[in-house]
């Protein structure tokens, strides 16, 4: 997946920024991040730098890569007790580029994946990061989503059941589903717990989608990548975070590999993440293993779909979906 700026698109962006009081010099877009969905660029604006988010080049699956939806969530959260970038400008498709995009503030900090930055010490900052993740998720789930303008944003009723059905449809797009996916879907449907509530759900909450302070001690500065956000069962978010949180002695799935810094000696175990979240929210997490299995199965379905689509080299590894399925099976046995 690639897309390059040319003279025409650069000029259109410069005009767009100038019209909104953000222009001062050529924007000089530079690709940042290692995401495999929306494209993210650091740009120069009046007074410093900002971040531009746009979808990948077409074809884009229906309902995917919705940057305007992402911008709406960020705008709604601007006045809430949730650390997020601030939206500076939004463009509809055809307004400047042939696709929609938005511009947000640039948060200067560390995005941590497989190793700790030099300023951090695992024994000192690792526990703070585990708590920070739990605290960030708890603060998000405490937001009154109706009061902040997201009353029509999602359909929380039967969130988990609809989630499973939608993914079951995706499993068969390219023919027979990969081995094990159908059986896991049936198991999840048969054992689904009552839903734990209705909150904003980030839907991709993990270590690589947050920004930490530049200097120690580690502080959560911003939660990123809101394109999948909706209204639903908050424990799905926690289950997803646990699915992506590696544990020593267990085989790693792909998102756990992207969070391998959490394996360092002294970092809080994922049980600490769960305990911190439960203490702050008061939610019953006794059925959390089902949600972890659900999240891992979802990722297995999505990675299998992307592998068969053969559009992005990152998904070329045929072992990715089976490794997520193995995580789902391990937690399903405990649920």
Task: Describe the model.
The protein has 335 residues and is an alpha+beta fold. The protein folds into 2 domains: 99 residues, Phosphorylase Kinase, domain 1, CATH 3.30.200; 213 residues, Aminoglycoside phosphotransferase (APH), C-terminal lobe (Aminoglycoside 3'-phosphotransferase, Chain: A, domain 2). Helices cover 41% and strands 12% of the residues. It contains 11 helices and 9 strands. The strands form 3 sheets. A 5-stranded antiparallel sheet has the order 1-2-3-5-4, covered by helices on one side. Helix 7 packs across helix 10. The model has no long low-confidence stretch (mean pLDDT 94).
Task: Please describe the topology of this protein.
Blueprint: H1 7-19, E1 30-31, E2 39-45, E3 48-54, H2 67-77, E4 87-91, E5 101-105, H3 122-141, H4 146-150, H5 159-171, H6 181-191, E6 199-201, E7 210-212, E8 220-223, E9 230-232, H7 234-243, H8 254-257, H9 270-281, H10 288-309, H11 320-334
Antiparallel strand pairs: 1-2, 2-3, 3-5, 4-5, 6-9, 7-8
Structural class: alpha+beta
**What sequence of helices (H) and strands (E) makes up the elements?**
HEEEHEEHHHHEEEEHHHHH
- Average pLDDT for all residues: 94
CATH superfamily of the largest domain: Aminoglycoside phosphotransferase (APH), C-terminal lobe
Task: Sum this structure up briefly.
The protein folds into 2 domains: 7-105, Phosphorylase Kinase, domain 1 (2-Layer Sandwich); 122-334, Aminoglycoside phosphotransferase (APH), C-terminal lobe (Aminoglycoside 3'-phosphotransferase, Chain: A, domain 2). It contains 11 helices and 9 strands.
């Amino acid at each position: 997946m690639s897309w390059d700026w040319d003279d025409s698109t650069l000029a259109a962006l410069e005009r767009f920024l100038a019209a909104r009081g953000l222009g001062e010099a050529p924007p000089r877009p530079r690709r940042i991040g290692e995401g495999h969905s929306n494209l993210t660029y650091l740009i120069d604006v009046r007074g410093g730098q900002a971040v531009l988010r746009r979808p990948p080049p077409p074809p884009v699956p229906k309902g995917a890569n919705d940057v305007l939806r992402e911008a709406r969530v960020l705008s709604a959260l601007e006045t809430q007790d949730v650390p997020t970038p601030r939206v500076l400008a939004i463009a509809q498709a055809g307004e400047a580029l042939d696709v929609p995009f938005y511009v947000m503030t640039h948060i200067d900090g560390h995005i941590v994946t497989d190793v700790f930055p030099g300023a951090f010490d695992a024994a000192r900052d690792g526990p703070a990061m585990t708590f920070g993740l739990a605290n960030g998720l708890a603060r998000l789930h405490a937001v009154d989503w109706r009061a902040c303008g997201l009353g029509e944003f999602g359909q929380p009723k039967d969130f988990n059941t609809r989630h499973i059905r939608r993914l079951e449809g995706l499993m068969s797009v390219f023919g027979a589903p990969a081995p094990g996916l159908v059986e896991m879907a049936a198991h999840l449907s048969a054992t689904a717990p009552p839903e734990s509530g209705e909150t904003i759900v980030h839907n991709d909450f993990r270590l690589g989608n947050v920004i930490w302070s530049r200097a120690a001690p580690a502080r959560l500065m911003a939660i990123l990548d809101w394109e999948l956000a909706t209204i639903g069962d908050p424990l799905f978010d926690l289950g997803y975070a646990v699915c992506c949180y590696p544990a020593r002695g267990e085989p790693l799935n792909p998102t756990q590999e992207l969070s391998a810094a959490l394996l360092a000696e002294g970092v809080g175990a994922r049980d600490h993440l769960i305990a911190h979240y439960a203490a702050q929210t008061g939610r019953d997490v006794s059925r959390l293993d089902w949600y972890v299995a659900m999240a891992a199965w979802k990722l297995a379905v999505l990675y299998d779909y992307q592998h068969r689509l053969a559009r992005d080299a990152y998904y070329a590894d045929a072992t990715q979906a089976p490794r997520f399925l193995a995580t789902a099976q391990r937690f399903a046995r405990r649920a």
